Amino acid sequence: MGEAKNKTEVQQGTLALMVLKTLDVLGPLHGYGIARRIEQISGDLLAVNQGTLYPVLLKLEQEGSIASEWGASEHNRKARFYRLTRAGRRQLRAEARDWEQTTAIIERFFAVKAEDLN
Amino acid sequence: MRILRRFLKRLGSWVTRRQDEERLSAEIEEHLALETARNLLAGLPPAEARRNAVLKFGSVEAIKEDYREQRGLPFIESLFQDTRYAARRLRNSPAFSVAVLLALALGIGATTSIFSLVHAVLFKSLAVANPAELYRVGKVARCCYWGGYSQENEFSIFSYDLYKHFRDHTPGFAELAAFQAGGALFGVRRAGAAEAAQGYPGEFVSGNYFAMFGVRAYAGRLLVPADDQPGAPPAAVMSYRLWQQRYGSDPSVVGALFNLDNKPFTIVGITPPGFFGDKLRSIPPDFFLPLNTEPVVGAAADPNDVATHWLDMIGRIRPGADPKAIEADMRVELKQWLRSHWADMSANDRANFPEQTLFLAPGGAGITAMRDEYEHWLEILMLVSSFVLLIVCANVANLMLVRGMERRQQTSLSMALGAQAWRLVRQALTECLLLSIAGGAAGLAVAYACTRLILRFAFPHIAGMGAVPISASPSMPVLLFAFGVSTIAGIVFGIAPAWTATRMDPIEALRGASRSTARTDSLPRKTLVVFQAALSRIAGCLRPAHDRSAQPRKPTLRIRPGPAHHRKD
């Protein structure tokens, strides 16, 4: 159970970052739009469970990174639109930097071969 | 910061949960509609398009569950649920609930009241300033007169002459006060009043008595050394209790003339409310008179007689002074004093001269006559009541264990239906805590009633007199301890069965439970029963032992009415 939970936590973290980036690039968007976008780019991460996006959206909103309001979708239906707040933009920058640092370090580790250390 | 913000949001949305639920449903509906539309565009038949959209979205209920967990304060919500559920379950089995509550109330109540009394009698300091600085000269309480120039084991009761000798020659004490070891009963009448004289207990004290204790007058002033001079106008201090209860806090009492045993005394002031003198006694003194007025009131023995010892001494040492050094000094002073009276000493006194010594003992609790008298008795009582608490714990544990066993089947069923193990354990825990809290509250009431009852029996109240200065309110640390112990016992034995039940394979458990005959007596249960029986036995054994030991020491705490002189018992 612990392991599974861990995995979803990591996933939620990356998902949150993707949501922030999507909103940063595309501007205000409703849930479905965000899901589609992430699906297009990430492939299978959301292919099975598009619904998992909504708890993440809620959490981000509670943290103040995004804000939401009702609006009309392209089919003229009532839809909830999410947009990035200033705090969200800050968070995105910080997390993107962290992420880049982490990947860079991990990359360097993977690049190292046994003979390089001699 | 973000966490706080999130918590506040959650708190907010916990209140508006219905609205949020609707919002999520609307969002999901919109999402599915959009996905369905896309599938239709891709050429799927309508039914299939919708089905694919739903599949892709994932389990709506699981998402909603997840969403709810993010949204409100699930911990608090489920706490409320658990509490409601536990209360319902307890209502459904009144016999069990009442049994546990009674056991807890009695156990916690009895233990707390006994320990509160023990605390008050054995450990409590006097209601004075900085009791840690006080030292008593002498260890045992000798009441009330002693003649001659030698005392067995130690000098612990002193004549007025010897007191003055110590007071004037011991610089280690900032103040050294003396006061009557026994008590006196005065016939009291306000001068000019038509009422008959009434008997009230009083005490002769040295002029620096109140200064030594560091207490301040509630009204007027307290005695000062100038009052304690031969020929000084007779002055007395009245207790706050008498002033309030008998004279309705009448301000004109201060400065008024009162006849004590038909001798006029001016009441110069009132003691502070908490002050009950230098020792814990069943009837605290209502009047404090200077030592030098003793001959005025007219006692049988001459208080100024060099070899009549009738005073206790307590002193406040100078800050930083070493009591051991003072003790050594005083031993020398004692020998000097005895030597100066060599001519008056009997042959016996002279033979005992080399052994004469004295000790300094912590005096923050005053003269501990009551402690000395009851110590043994209270210790046994304490032991018995701790066993009572243990028995109660075992009883509660047993009841909880049985209940947990009975519940096993239901627990297994819940597990089989997919309940989370920790949630089931938490339910059991909530139930235990609910019982414990109710039991603790009942215990508090019992403790209060019980202490009052014991006080009433041990120190029968005499109309018009002051009551023993022991508060009936339970001591908080003791109450918390008793409450804690019984709660822990309840929790451990309440949770244990639930926990073991959750560890079992539900299928196996259900099969076993439906036709359970054997294995209901588990090892912990058997152990508990044996333990409980053993405890009851020990407690039973202790009781006669305490009766036996208490018999010959039956305390005499009566005031003998009669002509008002010193008690000579």
Overall description:
Chain A is of the alpha+beta class and 118 residues long. Chain A is built from 4 helices and 3 strands; from the N terminus they run αβααββα. Chain A is 63% helix and 14% strand. Chain A has a 3-stranded antiparallel sheet with strand order 1-3-2. In chain A, a hairpin with a 5-residue loop joins β2 and β3. In chain A, α1 (2-26) crosses α3 (53-63). The longest helix of chain A is centred in the last third of the chain and has 26 residues, at 86-111. Chain B is of the alpha+beta class. Helix content of chain B is 55%, strand content 11%. Chain B has helices spanning 2-15, 17-41, 46-57, 60-71, 74-92, 94-123, 160-169, 209-213, 240-245, 294-297, 323-340, 347-352, 369-406, 408-416, 421-458, 476-503, 506-514, 523-550, and strands at residues 134-137, 146-147, 173-180, 184-190, 198-205, 219-220, 235-238, 257-260, 263-270, 287-290, 308-309, 311-317, 360-362. In chain B, a hairpin with a 7-residue loop joins β4 and β5 (198-205). In chain B, 37% of the residues are buried. The interface between A and B is medium-sized, with 24 and 29 residues.
Average pLDDT metric of chain A: 80
Span between termini of chain A: 42 Å
Could you list the spans of chain B in which at least 5 consecutive residues all have pLDDT below 50?
544-569
Tally of individual helices of chain B: 18
Mean pLDDT of chain B: 79
Largest sheet of chain A: 3 strands, antiparallel
* Rg for CA atoms of chain B: 37 Å
Annotation field: number of helices of chain A? 4
The shape of chain A, in one word, is: elongated
Quick recap:
The complex is a heterodimer of chains A (118) and B (569). Chain A has 118 residues and is α+β, with helices and mostly antiparallel strands.
